[in-house]
Amino acid sequence: MALENEKSNLEFNFSKRDFERLRKLVYEHTGINLSEEKQQLTYGRFAKRLRALKISDFSDYIDLIDNGDEDEMDHFVSAITTNFTSFFRESHHFDFLAQEVQRIGMKSRRIRIWSAGCSSGEEPYSIAISILNAIPDAINWDLKILATDLDKKMVEKASAGIYDAERISGLPEQIKKGWFRKGRGDNAGKVQVAKEARSLITFKDLNLLHDWPVKGPFDIIFCRNVVIYFDKGVQRTLFSKFSAKQRSGGKLIIGHSENLANVSNDYKLIGRTIYEKL
User: Fold this and answer.
1) What is the pTM of this model?
2) Coiled-coil annotation: which residues (predicted)?
3) Do 109 and 39 fall into the same domain?
4) For 99-138, how does the pLDDT look when each residue is reduced to its tens digit (9 = 90+)?
5) Are 264 and 240 in contact (CB under 8 A)?
6) Has 149 been annotated as catalytic?
7) CA neighbor of 197 nearest in space, from 277, 107, 103, 115
8) 262 belongs to a structural domain
9) CATH number for the domain harbouring residue 146
10) 85 known member of a binding site
11) Which of 149, 151, 219, 266 does the annotation list as catalytic?
């Protein structure tokens, strides 16, 4: 049953028109295309913001966003984006990464890697740790990792490199002891990524739908579980822009549920969700 027919059971009125207006704004600001099946999820995500702002009606909140309230925009983006991630997720990507960096390092000690859609930072830290674990001397190379996300709050969290200790409980002891430092005092029960790994990464907030003030060219780009939320038109635009930031032979790594079919002809598949720029 549609939410508009269940108003008596909801804390806030949320009409079909409200949902359509929100869908439009979400698409404009994030590129995420919400299906009609996401109406209830959308209500739940934004109802928290109405409570926080003490707004009693969804239409008033939507007007606030539509009128360009900058203070609320960060909360708006954060509310709708999904930030599930973990260290060394899809581990085969990091095995490939270590081999690829070794291969590049035989010719040049200058390497540029981009983690696009870094969320709370587990991906770029996994990149740095994987490289340094396999190639300790890489700390002395001209090696830089750019990590970006459209959610400013996530970028701030990621740059600190501090996590609840349970987030690394499943990692091998060698990784835990070598690359994470236990917190004390106020940070008891938490861990922080070792300085050596943090020093390789630059965190920035960046909306992939807007201009990209990044230099490149990148040897390796991670863009995993990001484009799955975009329609094909947006995906084509993004992968065209990624291609423009890579030289021939550069590698693009995407998520396990994603592929470049009917989206880009600039890459060839060389491994499980691993592509090479033509």
Assistant:
1) 0.86
2) none
3) no
4) 999 999 999 999 999 999 999 999 999 999 999 999 999 9
5) yes
6) yes
7) 115
8) yes
9) 3.40.50.150
10) yes
11) 149
